[in-house]
Amino acid sequence: MARRPRVPGMELVPINDEDEAWALLEELSHTGFADDSKLPHINHWPRFHFKFWIEGSQLVLTQPVMQAMIDYQTSVNRAFMIVLENTSILRGLSEEERQEFEIVFKVKKGSTDLSFNAQELIEKFMEKAVGKLTGKQIAIIVIAFALLFTGYSCWNAYLEEQREEAKAEASSKQMKDVLEAQKFASENDLKRMKILADALTAAHGSHALIDASEDGKKGVVKAAAKVQDTEIGNNHLPPEVARRMARAAPSAPVKKIVTAEYEVLRVDTDVPDGFRVRLKNTKTGQTVFASLRDALVSENDRTLISRGEWEKKPIVATVQETWRRGNLASARVEQVINVVEKTQVAGR
């Protein structure tokens, strides 16, 4: 087992199951993710299961199933690099780190009932996060990592989203009816995923961790399309549904350029790229955690943002927002136009 990391000023909160992880994540999202956040202390996390059947029986490993395991491992490695090294390129992953984050799948004798020890994976990620992230980022990002890769609600929400996309693209009424009859996620699963997406955006400034986890999930769905039957967590995935879902094109991100007045909630210099800012649109109330267009050359933008924070005055800025599936995935400050001299922000 990995050593339980401790962070000064952070309360350790015992997590015994997935529901408790979701409860802590929701609590943190409601408290504005303050510096005195609570750190999850994983006491127990159930093994996550994939089950594949061929010709009515569970059989030994096949090539598509092995590829699914490789894809899942790759997505875990990519998540590690995105969150802790601020890059999606895997070339920078050392051999030692590859071994530390290796998923050990357990295969029951004569079957393809695959499982892995999610608790060990979570603890390894947390141990690394303590040295790479600021205290106020660790709690949400560690919980998000655990839920995205080993949580049933995130898997349910992903399958439901893929089903909806496949149904929208299906050309025949018969296939639309098949997809319509399939249901993967409850309203609570979808609500939970929205909470996670919003909290992760606030903590890390992007949905890159979600995207990395979905690469691994896509690999499992592709394997499900090539066997007779599949069970993912608590869900049954028929091959005809999996085949249609595996072909569905991913939703394209939508970019928006917004010029507005923003309250500067926080400037964060303890991040890998050196400078990020949390802004609140004074008209819409939308909060974004944005990086700068170019941290090396936009010194004037940094100065104006810092003035806005110190003097408790809003700024007028142009922000490029990237939206994916109706959620704000990331934001980038393109230009800070000025500090608003006449208007003080109430309550600051």
Question: Can you give a write-up of this model?
Answer:
Helix 5 runs parallel beside helix 9 (about 210-225) and helix 6 (about 150-170) runs antiparallel to helix 7. The protein has helices at about 20-30, 65-85, 95-100, 120-130, 135-150, 150-170, 175-180, 185-205, 210-225, 240-245, 300-310; strands spanning about 10-15, 40, 50-55, 55-60, 105, 115, 230, 235, 255-270, 275-280, 285-290, 315-325, 325-340. A hairpin with a 2-residue loop joins strand 12 and strand 13 (about 325-340). It is built from eleven helices and 13 strands. By secondary structure, the protein is of the alpha+beta class.
Quick structural overview:
The chain is α+β, with helices and mostly antiparallel strands and 348 residues long. The protein has helices spanning 18-30, 63-85, 95-100, 118-132, 135-150, 152-169, 173-181, 187-204, 208-224, 239-247, 299-310; strands at 11-15, 38-42, 48-54, 57-58, 105-107, 113-116, 229-232, 235-237, 254-268, 276-281, 287-292, 315-324, 327-339. α4 packs antiparallel against α5 (135-150).
What's the topology here?
Elements lengths: L10 E5 L2 H13 L7 E5 L5 E7 L2 E2 L4 H23 L9 H6 L4 E3 L5 E4 L1 H15 L2 H16 L1 H18 L3 H9 L5 H18 L3 H17 L4 E4 L2 E3 L1 H9 L6 E15 L7 E6 L5 E6 L6 H12 L4 E10 L2 E13 L9
Parallel strand pairs: 1-2, 11-13
Antiparallel strand pairs: 3-4, 3-6, 3-7, 5-6, 7-8, 9-10, 9-12, 10-11, 12-13
Helix pairs in contact: 1-5, 1-8, 2-4, 2-9, 4-5, 5-6, 5-8, 5-9, 6-7, 6-8, 6-10, 9-10
